[in-house]
Design goal:
The protein has 513 residues and is of the alpha/beta class. The protein is built from 14 helices and 20 strands. Helix 1 (16-25) links the parallel strand 1 and strand 2 (29-34). Helix 5 packs across helix 6 (229-242) and helix 6 (229-242) packs across helix 11 (369-378).
Length: 513
């Protein structure tokens, strides 16, 4: 099934995949392509619209990303966002300069005034908040363009050539801080591009399955099945695409949550896949012995995962592809291009130098977590698996601060289970996007009965988030926290103090390590 397509031309901005997410939410299929993509390839996609993303550069510098001006002759509507807006202005005869006065620079939430006669703002309020992030200024707009939005500091917050379907905005409509930002994108798609809204997650599923079949052919695939949402959805998608060519290896590294290994095996029993469970607890604990540095723990676990897969691959014969459940936030946080490395994800930055596979296949690489869950439902995965709490590949190893031992893992397993059980009993589990316990490396004095204790401090973490790129700490009722604290201290040996993490992301990450 073919779909109308919007091309998102990537100029290196931090919100580029978020633009794609907004377009998909509006029921329109889109693909993100680098600005270096040949025009012939872009034109072959027969787009109904093109979006130029933001980026960190200044368009007037010779070294900045450019686009072939021919793209403006196609008769295809174009929306330029931030850098993309300035690039359009620069390419079509306008003039963009570095702002020399504070009045021309804008950062953060900005009161903005819109011309609602413009199709981009049709049906929207004439005034609202936008999210600005630009230090350059359109001193002159191109011929044929009208000013369609302004702020107190800037007269040309948005420009439009309605006759050609060219629109530019200095702000970021894709972020939640911009009021009615998604409505503006929807207006571009439907009012300007004439979108039919013919794309859905079921459509994405069919497209992904077709492309996997084309890429894999008759090859054999080995997938790391952790039982988490990402790897489970990847497994189901690959099973639909290539069936028995897929071998799912569930590495039970002894760092899972309570009873989770058995639950994973049981959940996939009805599926027509080659399922292999490997008991590797001792092997991982030996490798991790004495290691306290978080990045080293991640690297060790990533390397050991691959070694186990290599061994299993040899048992099943030649394997052409290693499949991973990598999703987009993993890629961002592990650093891509000039992006900073926040932390290495085991399935992105932890691969060893020598891998006995031809290629890596990552069918979920451009999806956010909520989209992965929606795809899982389309594939028929049970709800308890699709809605499973996010769990990092390295498991409890990165929720144990300091060195990892079996005793610590067992302690954390029990405490984490009580935390999750009480959250569920309180009926607030659906309101929280992620919640878990962390065994800190801090020990403190306590009193239990008539005796002195010197045991570990346990930290509880719960957040709410739309996309896992940012997150806010969850306001769990005190009475629920009280029940959790009492149960853990009384039922779990080795813990005598409970603390609750009230830090949002940023500045913190969701996980502690």
């Amino acid at each position: 099934m073919s779909h109308q397509t919007v091309i998102i031309l990537d100029f290196g901005g931090q919100y580029n995949q978020l633009i794609a997410r907004r377009v998909r939410e509006c029921g329109v299929y889109c693909e993100v392509r680098p600005y270096t993509t040949p025009l012939a390839d872009l034109r072959a996609m027969n787009p109904i619209g093109i979006i130029f993303t933001g980026g960190p550069n200044s368009v007037y510098l010779e070294t900045s990303p450019r686009v072939d001006p021919e793209i403006f002759t196609w008769g295809v509507p174009i929306l330029g966002i931030c850098y993309g807006c300035q690039l359009m202005a620069h390419a079509l005869g306008g003039r963009v300069v570095a702002a020399t006065e504070d009045s021309a620079r804008e950062y953060g939430k900005t009161e903005t005034y819109f011309d609602t006669a413009c199709r981009l703002f049709k049906g929207l309020p004439a005034q609202g908040i936008t999210w600005m992030s630009h230090g350059d200024y359109m001193e002159k707009v191109p011929q044929g363009f009208a000013l369609t939005a302004r702020s107190d500091a800037c007269p040309n917050v948005a420009i439009a050539d309605e006759a050609r379907g060219f629109y530019g905005v200095q702000y970021h409509p894709e972020v939640n801080h911009t009021q009615h930002g998604t409505d503006m994108i929807r207006n571009f798609l439907y009012e300007v591009c004439g979108a039919a809204g013919d794309w859905s997650m079921s459509g994405y599923k069919e497209t992904a399955i077709r492309r996997l079949r084309e890429r894999i052919g008759a090859g054999k695939v080995l997938l790391a099945l952790s039982g988490g949402v990402d790897s489970s959805v990847a497994a189901a998608l690959l099973a639909e695409a290539v069936g028995k060519q897929l071998t799912c290896v569930f590495v039970d590294h002894g760092l899972m949550r309570l009873n989770e290994g058995d639950e994973v095996e049981s959940a996939f029993a009805p599926w027509d896949i080659n399922f292999v469970r490997v008991d590797a607890e001792h092997r991982f604990l030996v490798r991790l012995a004495g290691e306290a540095e978080p990045e080293r723990k991640r690297k060790i676990i990533g390397e050991e995962f691959i070694r186990v897969f290599e061994e299993e691959a040899r048992k099943v014969g030649a394997v052409d592809f290693l499949a991973q459940g990598t999703i987009y936030p993993d890629v961002i946080e592990s650093g891509a291009g000039d992006a900073a490395v926040i932390k290495s994800h085991h399935n992105v930055g932890g691969l060893p130098d020598c891998v006995d596979f031809k290629e890596i296949v990552e069918p979920l690489r451009l999806l956010f977590k909520d989209e992965v869950r929606a795809l899982g439902r389309e594939l028929g995965l049970p709800e308890y698996l699709v809605s499973r709490q996010p769990f990092p590949g390295p498991g409890l190893a990165i929720r144990i601060i300091g060195d990892v031992t079996k005793e610590k893992a067992d302690t954390l397993r029990e405490a984490d289970f009580i935390f999750r059980e009480e959250i569920s009993k309180a009926g607030i589990d659906k309101n929280l996007n992620q919640y878990f316990a962390v065994l800190t490396n801090t020990r403190s004095v306590g009193v239990m009965g008539d005796g002195r204790t010197y045991d570990y401090t346990l930290a509880l973490r719960a957040v709410t988030t739309a996309d896992f790129m940012t997150a806010d700490w969850a306001r769990i009722p005190y009475e629920v926290l009280d029940r959790i604290s009492i149960r853990i201290v009384n039922e779990v040996q080795g813990i005598n103090r409970i603390v609750y993490d009230i830090t949002s992301k940023p500045p913190a990450t969701i996980e502690w390590e």
